[in-house]
Amino acid sequence: MSQKVLIVDDEESILTLLQFNLEKSGFLVTTAMDGKTGLEKGLNGEFDMIVLDLMLPEMEGLEVCKELRQNKVLTPILMLTAKDDEFDKVLGLELGADDYLTKPFSPREVVARVRAILRRSQVLNQTEKVDKKIDSISFGDVEIFPDNYEVYLRGEALELTPKEFELLVYLTRNRGRVLTRDQLLNAVWNYEFVGDTRIVDVHISHLREKIEPNTKKPMYIKTIRGLGYKMETIKNDE
Question: pTM of the predicted model, to two decimals?
Fold first, then answer.
């Protein structure tokens, strides 16, 4: 069954080029040329992937991304930006985007990135279905249900983006191990991210805001200076 991709971009030439290459690669493509239309389609359609431009008429891409996440649409989002500005990229990731590409880019690069993100999600889902011995993973006040993509903190459901969820599961399953940023990139994003480990730091920061009692003194996800991160083994860990 073909996977469905929504492309939101106001440049007709880019939209046409991406649609052609994605459809040629076997995807079912829906398009929108402004932020409001893209948001409506993203809210009402069941897509496997959303390719979202940053600068859009009617509503900017960052706002579209924010609205989708606030409405519990957890479809992976690949954000496109013409700005070589780290603030825009980091802000997009903080608002729930899973990945970004800076224009200009080749259509093949977009197709490869879409496939990589979707492949990682599929592999994670298949792994969880095979691993029937683990119904949930617990540490401290946090309980994770991998099969259902659910996380609870003291019994209250947490809203995590797909990448935040995958990162949390990977850290939890490697409790007590020091993991470098490159290891986390390869494990969670499943491809080389052009050496930009900032994406890992952003997602770690976002996770801490959601699970740590005190983000300034994290008790779960510890920073190992000069190396990376480590999920601490809490006394009541299973």
Answer: 0.64
198 has pLDDT over 50: yes
CA 93 and chain centroid, separation: 8
All domains of the chain, ordered by start, with CATH? Answer: 4-121 (3.40.50.2300), 133-231 (1.10.10.10)
104 preceded by a cis bond (ω within 30 of 0):
yes
Give the separation between CA 79 and CA 232, rounded to whole angstroms: 32
The closest of 92, 103, 87 to 10, measured between CA atoms, is 103
- Sheet architecture: strand order including 221-224: 178-180, 228-231, 221-224
Cβ-Cβ contacts under 8 Å for 42 (sequence gap 6 or more): 6, 8, 50, 64, 68, 73, 75
| More confidently predicted of 192 and 204 | 204
